[in-house]
Write a structure and sequence with these properties.
α6 packs across α7, α7 runs antiparallel to α8 and α9 packs across α10. The radius of gyration is 22 Å and the shape is globular. It is 44% helix and 12% strand. The strands form two sheets. A nine-stranded mixed sheet has the order 1-2-4-3-5-6-7-8-11, sandwiched between helices. A two-stranded antiparallel ribbon has the order 9-10. It contains 18 helices and eleven strands.
Length: 504
Amino acid sequence: MRRLIRVARSAAVAALLLATSATPASAASPTCTNPTVKCEVGQTSDGSTWKIEVPPEWNGTLLVYSHGYVPPTGPNPPADDAADRLVADYLLAHGFALAGSSYASAGWAVADAFADQEAVLRQFQRDFGRPKATIAWGHSMGGMITAGLLQLHPSQFAGGLAMCGLLGGGIGLWNTNLDLEVAFKTLMLRDPNPAVSQPAAKLVVTHVQDADANVSNAEAALAAAQATPQGRARIALAAAMIDLPSWFSTATPEPGSTDYATWEQNQFQALQIQLVFVFGFRQELEARAGGNPTWNVGVDYAAQLRKSADRTEVRALYQAAGLDLDADLAAIGATSRVRPDRNAARYLERNVVFNGNLHIPLLTMHTTSDFLVPFQHEQAFAAAVAGAKRSELLRQVFVHRPGHCTFTAAETLTALNVLLDRLKTGSWHETGSPAALNAAATSFGPAYNVLLPAPGAPPLPTPPAFAKARPSRFLRPFTLPPGGHSIVPGGSPGQGPLARAGRG
């Protein structure tokens, strides 16, 4: 995995890890930095670390933080109780207690996260008593874990805040990843340039044995394809299978609605990160699951493109390149279909998919141009909740900005205040008014309205950007009853533990 480690040290992925992991990997154990509060750290029997901070005038509310995906290519970072120290210290100063776990392992550590966050709760209750209210919150994979905790253990929580979350669930995510893999390999094989087609021929889509080689070949094919109009058109088609957005970075302005060349350039940058996950980190997932948990049986890729938010871009670039789009779609559709290893699929169903059956309030927040977790995940979750007739418990807010989890401290605190207001009053207020949310975020002052564009870079003043948004349809939904009727091929609906636990 040496090459993957080098990839993870690139500037783009380094920024991603700061957004999604609890702390930098250089620390050996949880650290306490706020001298005004009581801070405890420790380790559980499975090897995970935990951190708890309680202010001297605790208001009785505990926030349990779930961090995001940590690549399985280096040390597992120690626990922290928030992603942003500015946010953490603000909450502590206003009477909130904080807690969080490292999870026992890196990678797709969802099962570990559920167990270890429960252990943190027990530790807190032993040392500080039972909170009046406990709120789950988290980023990225931690947003998915947040929603999973609320669904598995609703009696233990008062509400949740899931930020930039994988809310399409584990099977939805990894099935879309499979679609990207299948489309990318097929399209690169059709390129007449051997610098593209030869590494593509070596790509392994499932049952990955050498993640290093797989990522290396994917990156080689991608870089060579980017050099020609035909290659760029095919990159755009592959990107459309997971709805990669048109805007990649706050360092550049948002491209125009028909500036398809810039769209594709931004998707190319996003794919440099996505390919590490789909062709590389799949190996770690399959090792946990005991095989391949994904499938594309019955998928109509032409229909997927028609539903994709990138469809106009793809058609324009194919026309400009003189390529036959129908022929390429037919080639993707003609590939041998992938079936799941049933036990592996059951593992991913447990870790984790959703049924939409909320029992307590959940607020979600997502950037509109998230290159790692496209905001269509929000549509999948909202549809599941609507199917379970629980929509009154869900509110979703959006920040018009590129990047994964690129929220200012002010936006995070504003979202938390919306949730706290819902818990206090029993009603959602202001979530339909971006202007009100932006005014609330502005009121925190300049120090809270900044982003860190890169590690070590000076803070960048960033005005709040709450906006109305409507994600297009998530392309590969997988939702259990009562909110949906999805099944693993060859199975029957409702067999997973969340389906059983969530009925009623």
